Amino acid sequence: MVEMLGLLLIFMIIGAVIAIETKNLLSSVISVGAVGFGLSIAFLMLRAPDIAITQVVVEVLCLVILIRATISRDVTGISCDREFFAVVCAAVFLIAIFLFGIKALLALPEFGTPVMLLIKSAPTNTYISEGLKQTGAANIVSAILLDYRAYDTLGEATVLFTAILGGLAILRRKAKKEVTQIVEDKE
Amino acid sequence: MKGMTLIVKTVTRWVKGFIFLFGLYIILFGHLTPGGGFAGGVILACSYILLTLAYSKEVAHRSLSRAVASELDSVGALIFLSIALLGIYFGGGFFVNFIHRLSPGEPFRFLSAGIIPLCNVAIGIKVGSSLFMIFVILSAMRVIVRKSDNGREIIDNRRKHPR
Q: Which carries the bigger pLDDT value, residue B60 or residue B19?
């Protein structure tokens, strides 16, 4: 299973590179979609069906919106000389993150080992052993999302609500028409 | 926007109800099987987005107009918040699962887990209507303000570059 996961990761990396490098905007969006569906299969192989469902569904929605938004746009590339200082900074950051990333990955437990087995006092152990009795929900993910960690879900709902408010305030159609009306009335 | 071909329209007519039903199932059984309010709400939004893409914006707005979607968005958020506030009154704390404390249902049954199914329904309503509105305002509206010949700005709904 680990080999399949590795193949899937390589496929996703190739898709991401194509998405960045291609000139056509539509094929770039489709490559991003391939990366997302590969990620959902990876979630399914790691036995996280809840996240896999959400990933597939949100991926479909985002692809539809992106394709509708980009299908009649031209690519406006920015072509200018690279600054020496910015390139040096980027290289230093990349090397630093690479070195510390290797260090962090070596400190992780072996692949497939649940971290809560290593720390006995982790709250996850309580969720798994007492979750059904305390909340009555058979799906432990729902129990954690909406009972133990309901504050986080409330925050997530607030973020979505604020995003809608901002989008509607910027993109509403009525105000633009009225402004045009004023311009026409002056003449 | 005239919609797509006859094949797409026919398939959409058959499939849209099943997609909506699947979204409802994911929401209502979120406390028993994988899924929940967020995923189910996105599926509900997807059924309306399919309607918008296959037919037209007007057909989709006939069953769920923008004003109704906006109200549903607010109503879902208010239901979620009022469930949390009822927890203070009945259970003594914000987001306390008071229904489960008062009458714990039988586990693995539909009527169990207290406020969790109610929260799932509220989040499903909220996420579904708000994502449909995101789709409408981001991609279904195509308003281009351009200068006409005599210098006035006019609103043009046509595509700038015909495909």
A: B19
Within-domain flag for B56: yes
Chains A, B: CB contacts under 8 A, how many? 156
* For residue B117, pLDDT beyond 60: yes
Q: Do B30 and A154 touch (CB under 8 A)?
A: no
Are the beta carbons of B135 and A145 separated by less than 8 Å?
no
Domain hosting residue B68, numbered range: 6-156
Q: Where are the domains of chain A?
A: 1-75, 82-141, 149-187
Predicted confidence band of residue A186 (pLDDT cuts 50, 70, 90): very low
Higher pLDDT, A167 or B157: A167
Q: How many Cβ atoms are within 10 Å of A65's Cβ, its own excluded?
A: 18
Q: How far apart are CA A177 and CA B145, in angstroms?
A: 10
How many domains does chain B fold into?
A: 1
CB of A6 closer than 8 Å to CB of A42? no
Yes or no: say if A143 and A131 are a contact pair by the CB < 8 Å rule.
yes
Report yes or no: A162 at the B interface, CB cutoff 8 Å: no
B137 in a structural domain: yes
Within 8 A of B45 by CB-CB distance, chain A residues are 61
Tell me the chain A residues in contact with residue B119 when contact means C-beta distances shorter than 8 Å: 146, 150, 153
